Amino acid sequence: MAQVWKCSGLRWPAGGGPVLEWDGGRRSALPRGKRVAFAVPEGGVRRCVGARGHACAVRAVVPGRSTGARCEECARLDRAHSVAADTLADDPRPYRVYLAWFGPGLVKVGITAAERGPARLLEQGAVCFSWLGTGPLMAARRTEELLRAALRVPDRIPYAEKRAVRSALPATEAERAAEVRELHARAVALPGWPESLRPAPCDVVDHARAFGIEAAPEAFGEVVELVPGGSVGGELVAAAGPDLHLAVGGRGVVVLDTRLMTGWELLPSEPAAAGCAFPVREFRREPDGLF
After folding, report:
1. Strands in 16-114 per DSSP E
2. End-to-end CA distance of the chain
3. Which class for 19: exposed (0-12), middle (13-18), buried (19 or more C-beta within 10 A)?
4. φ/ψ (deg, to 5) at 262
5. Spatial CA neighbour of 263 closest among 56, 88, 98, 124
6. For residues 11 and 28, what is the distance between their CA atoms, to the nearest angstrom?
7. Cβ pair 159, 123 in contact under 8 A
8. Which one of 17, 33, 99, 152 is at 20 to 30 Å from 248 when CA atoms are compared?
9. 34, HSE (Cβ side, Cα atoms, 13 Å)
10. For the purposes of burial, counting CB atoms within 10 Å of the CB of 175, is it exposed (0-12), middle (13-18) or buried (19 or more)?
């Protein structure tokens, strides 16, 4: 039987392109043009990936559509030790507040450890972003809450919404940066900023070229889950956040969220094979006019 591979996620190393990581420490670089082809064995089962480096005690089976690939108990343990859970109030590290733009009308506010640089923005698939300020964790969190309350800026945007707009982005960096610049100006003018948070000037960083989405063909849909006996094979034309945009033959480009790969045992398939035998949800298109 062929050797099986277990994916542990897509990473964006500093100064480099996307990399798939596998259990055991192996890595697969993902330059554009690379052939990506794998299959789920017949009878395969997706199991919980555990939490914080520890295996799931019961090796629970998890749903194919779960992007976390964790059972309820492991998901609770993982979140309990995250910054998002507000359980690390005494974290001494500096944090940055940012505005991230994913497409027209899709702007969010968030925080990330300063030592991580822009990694968090690449991981989320932010097409462009700007820092708002730097300071202690709780000051960064209060600033995030200030923007949510005063400007109605969300702190989360579903990945499905991000994917659906990528093929219809404004053509120039200036156009893509416009909403971030406008919101940044409104944000820094707000009263009530924590004194310990040092504001940052607006300096919009654009990731469209790094992701490859400027020149990538329009995607027709997204893989919704992996299933036993299914497979996918295609050429990588773009990558944004956890998503791979794969040209899979006659139907065009499909988006694969690599978080759906975790928890499965995967087999390599023929590199020359093209196509997608996993369930796909097509993107809804707005009509051009009356007809």
Report:
1. 19-22, 27-29, 35-39, 95-103, 106-113
2. 53
3. middle
4. -70, 145
5. 56
6. 10
7. no
8. 17
9. 16
10. exposed
Of the candidates 213, 270, 214, which has an alpha carbon nearest to the alpha carbon of residue 244?
213
What tokens were used for 178? 């416009």
The pTM of the whole model exceeds 0.85: yes
Q: E strands along the chain, which residues?
A: 7-11, 19-22, 27-29, 35-39, 95-103, 106-113, 128-135, 198-199, 205-206, 219-223, 231-240, 243-247, 253-257, 267-268, 275-276, 280-282
Average pLDDT across each block of 10 residues of the chain; the chain has 291 residues. List them in order. 85 88 92 94 95 91 94 89 58 93 95 93 96 96 95 93 87 96 96 94 96 90 95 95 93 94 92 83 66 40
Whole-angstrom Cα distance, residue 224 to residue 181?
A: 34
- Beta-carbon contacts of 84 under 8 Å, excluding residues fewer than 6 positions away, are none
Place of tokens 């708002």: 132
